[in-house]
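Hey forum,

I'm writing up a methods section and want to include a predicted complex as supplementary material. The small molecule is guanosine-5'-triphosphate. I've pasted the protein sequence and the SMILES. Can someone with a working setup run it? I'll credit the forum in the acknowledgements.
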Amino acid sequence: MLIVFLGTAGSGKSTLTGEFGKYLETEGYNVAYVNLDTGVRSLIYMPDIDVRESITVDEIMKEGYGPNGAIVESYDRLMEHLEHYSTSIAELERKNDYVLIDTPGQMETFLFHEFGWRIMENLDAPLVVYLFDPGILRRLYDFCFVRFFAILIELRLGSAVVPVLNKIDTVDNLDGYRRYLEDMGSLTSRLKFDPSMQGYLAYKLCLTFPEVASPTRVLYISAKSHRGFEDLESVAHEHYCTCGDLT
Ligand SMILES: Nc1nc2c(ncn2[C@@H]2O[C@H](COP(=O)(O)OP(=O)(O)OP(=O)(O)O)[C@@H](O)[C@H]2O)c(=O)[nH]1
Ligand SMILES: [Mg+2]
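Reply by user p_vandermeer:
Happy to help. Structure tokens for the complex are below, copy them as they are.
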């Protein structure tokens, strides 16, 4: 099974890759790890495949690039190794129960650079875990934003996406988050009374949600405390064993 961890900077991709891998290993699975982040300095897991063997952001910055330019340049240079990485990941998949793939710190690098979608189209039915943390959910329309962002990731990468709220160890009103992440009817009816332009836009978008969204669960986890890891494991099984039904 191939699981790709994608999310905004600092959402917990690398921590989850390492901790979920540890959890799966204690469950008796063979797990392999892939690091696709050219910018990361240290990892809590030992990658079996690591793009930093080809190029790092630090090396490019020494040539005079700024941090953002160096990130883009690193993926431009990785393009010539695309086939190598695709083949190596496929090989790891054959030999392991799970291959966990950690993606670039900046999510847009993976979503917008050709390297991201090209590597995804070469993988065999990967499951994308879209990670976001509670800090992004401050206003009602933020809930709409994350649910639609998951759909846009699916559109861009062509893979099944499961939205995952990470860092739940930092919140004490999880039910409040669940209410608006899961019950789109409740969210839509609240948005109807939001007089702001964003509220109106979110309301109109949310009305279309049942038509455009793939049926999928939202998961709630803590990469640090391992809460919710059983749910993530069962969604991965559902994805592979029941042909993409993630409900
Ligand atoms: N409280 C809490 N902190 C977490 C959790 N998961 C990750 N963190 C912390 O969030 C910070 C970022 O975690 P990373 O795993 O590096 O996140 P990332 O998405 O890989 O970050 P970049 O690759 O740098 O964009 C670190 O300080 C982690 O310890 C969690 O479940 N709970
Ligand atoms: Mg990371």
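Some notes you might quote in the supplement: Strands lie at 2-7, 31-35, 49-50, 98-102, 127-132, 160-165, 219-220. The mean pLDDT is 94.
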